[in-house]
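Mods, move this if it's the wrong board.
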Amino acid sequence: MPSRAELIVKTERPEVVAGALSPELAERIPRTKVSVESRAGEVAITIEADDQTALRAALNSYIRWANVAEETAKEAGRR
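Not the wrong board. Structure tokens:
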């Protein structure tokens, strides 16, 4: 059964976070389709998957990558 989730990441650096995620869009996560959109003060990550297992795996990956991008941007901005 197809599954869908939208993850909204609140950030002061939406372009940086979305840009950091863009290389991952070129890599295929099996059984999923992912889009990333930069908005005012946030990044929207939409994941469509063939099943809940694939959805969970993709969500876990994108949450981790978005967090790393945000933390790296914060650190870079402090220097």
